[in-house]
Amino acid sequence: LEGTDRSRPPLLIHGHLDVVPADPAEWSVHPFSGEERDGYVWGRGSVDMKDMDAMTLALVRDWARTGVRPPRDIVLAFVADEEAGGTLGARWIVDEHPDLFADCSEAISEVGGFSLTVRDDLRLYLVQTAEKGLAWMRLTAGGKPGHGSFVHDDNAVTRLAEAVARIGRHHFPVVLTPPMRDFIAAVSDAYGVEIDLDDPEAALGRLGSISRMIGAALRNTANPTMLTAGYKANVVPGTASATVDGRFLHGQQEEFERQLAALVGEGVQRDWIVHDQAVETTFDGPLVEQMVAALKAEDDGARPVPFTMSGGTDAKSFERLGIRCFGFSPLRLPPDLDFAALFHGVDERVPVESLRFGIRVLDRFLRVA
After folding, report:
1. For the segment 213-269, what is each residue's pLDDT rounded down to a tens digit?
2. Among residues of the chain, what percentage have pLDDT more than 90?
3. pLDDT above 80: residue 205
4. Residues in a beta bridge with 331
């Protein structure tokens, strides 16, 4: 989109078009129907992240019809492969065609900007300023193969299972990053409670379902997700493997890998499937002020605050070009909606009124950003 002031650095709006799989048998509607029912748009990707893609395209189309021009150029990038780590999507285009984004200084994309209701006249809007690093890994254990009826002290399945259990049961220590400290301070003020920084999880429980997402940003995490071993009931295999989804906070990569090595133990090899950086910026500057103003103009009970996303986005790739990245997909949500459960969940859906709200906010924001 061509802006009125071509001397200013462009703003990037990026989104991914791929989604995770869905089993129609588990859903109330077909997950790829895009059905509108009961005030919601239902379907896989409606929250992650075709809501933002749709709001952006709806606004761009309206501007094209009415002749609106933003104050600076806006670069739109819709990519694939984000749910698989982004190697063939955002990372590829950043590596192979960086000239497409050469002058972009800032970017917005998915997740941030949604509301958390404190009371009727106060809603926190969580703007993503940080996200955890990605460390998907494959663990492989070797052992002596043989007949399943023998005694086997060198069993690859046993060795792998012990490592997986250690990782899955481990409780990584709390690490308070700067954006998380800011978020805790905002929560403390909004709810009028004192939060013990040595035990913040106790107080964050009052945030309801979203506390699962927030709590995961208090520490590094590692969750076993897949296991593979053997080919017959009476044969002890020579190898066994597991997949683990690891995430680390900004500034915690070396410590996380040290923690992980201790948990994996001897005799198990670790190989990265996808390994990518954590991203963090500050909640300040003109762009942030314009986000705040746009939200408050549409909701006089809005109080925007920074937060750290427990998962990851394509910001990991675009940040490598020196672009300052935010999660800003504005949605005013119903107080009783379990929003966190909808990410990759069954019956993923987004309220129609939330989409209309988001388009209005983005319109205000992008007219001045």
Report:
1. 888 899 999 999 999 999 999 999 999 999 999 999 999 999 999 999 999 999 999
2. 88
3. no
4. 114
Report d(CA 359, CA 225) in Å as an integer: 36
DSSP assigned state of 332:
-
Would you say the C-alpha torsion 221, 218, 46, 280 has a positive or negative sign? Answer: negative
CA 327, 332, 334, 336 torsion-angle sign: positive
Two tokens at 113?
A: 């900007």
Listing from the earlier edge strand, what are the strands of the sheet with 40-42?
36-37, 40-42, 349-351
Helix (H) or strand (E) holding 78: strand 74-79
pLDDT at position 156 is 96
Q: Is the pLDDT of residue 209 over 80?
A: no
Q: How far apart are CA 358 and CA 340, in angstroms?
A: 18
The dihedral formed by the CA atoms of 329, 330, 336 and 338, expressed in degrees to the nearest 10: 10
Per the model's pLDDT, the better-predicted residue between 111 and 270 turns out to be 270
Rounded to two decimals, the pTM is: 0.92
- Rounded CA separation 306/284 (Å): 10
- Residue written as tokens 């076993």? 224
